[in-house]
Amino acid sequence: MVSLWLRRSLAACAFPGMVALALIVTFSRNGWQYEWDWSFDIVGSCTMLLAPFVAGIVAHDRANRIGPFVSAVEIGSVRAAAAALVLPVAAIVLACGAWLLVLLAATVRVLFHHPVGTPSLVSPIQVFVVLVAAALIGAAIGCTLANRAAGPVAAVLVYLAGSFGYLFEVDGLFLGGRSTGTMVGLEHDPRWTAGLLAAHGGLGLAAAAVVYLRARGRSVLVATVPALVVALAALVAFATLSAGASPLRTVSGSPQTCLGSAPRVCGPPEASHLLAVAQHGLAREYGRLSASGLDLRDRYAMPRGLPSHRFPADTGILNLQPEQFEGGRYDLDSAVLTLASPTYCRDLAGEALPPRDLIDAQALVTRWLSATLHSKETVRPVTPEVRTAYDTLRDCAPYEGAP
User: Fold this and answer.
1) Which of 124, 262, 270, 292 is 20 to 30 A distant from 101 in Cα terms?
2) Which pTM was predicted?
């Protein structure tokens, strides 16, 4: 029966569209090709569009295609219930197939860019659970509405749940990946992942119950009320398990890898390749700035993967993003941002508005460094104003991190 619905389902015709959606979401962003974890998470984020798409397709099929078939095999029979539940299975198979194709394409790209880290199975598991829940919810809406509005309603409902769930303390619904930047020094938070799996498992179970009971001839009220209770319990479990957590957390307690001198750069061991490129780029700019007379900081570190989250003293912030390494070189603008951060200032690390003197000092130093390093002319001695501004940043009260 699965093979029948693989052929008859609208998902079969929409398979190229699923692949296209996942490709657009994945390859419209850059930088992830340098990291295994980030690449898997970026491909996982395509469920933001793929999940509503799958829900809409299944709802349309259930409302407009499987209805005549269910009637033909006598509504209320076990066979009819089985047919109703097999339909979302067919869509799940096709959606997962489309996602795996895009994951394969992303993997091929990653292999050509000397990736750091190791692949994580967390994102693929999240994607599978999200797509299963979306397909079952689409089937439940399709057998409840049973008209042409079922498809659009299901798609919009799933999309809104994913986009605005944070308003109800259930942020992250129908999202298989959440990273927006490098995952070096980060890992998936088990509490948040457990909440996500529990939520989608509960939503999928509730939706499957609606599909089964409706196919057995139960009324909309009898089928949906218990399912709504289960769905609500799943969302409460999500909010409870993920309370105080976030999709990603900083890895702490791991030893730091430090490379080079003038300056010395430090970061998580898995980023040693990137650290070497960054150190080479910064050393080049150090050489150019030696004639300026500016007393540059000689050590920088990533504010991730630090023992007990403590940032070392007398250390600047290393701005390290994989997208800065196009062509195997450390981007000059990134070098400017690093050199303009000689201390991890406490007042710049908090959520409160930083003092005006720090903002002005960093802006002045950044402008001077950018103009000097982008210029092909001989570097001139630093002005007193820039020196004073740099000293303000260097001597600010440092952020010491968690106790």
Assistant:
1) 270
2) 0.82
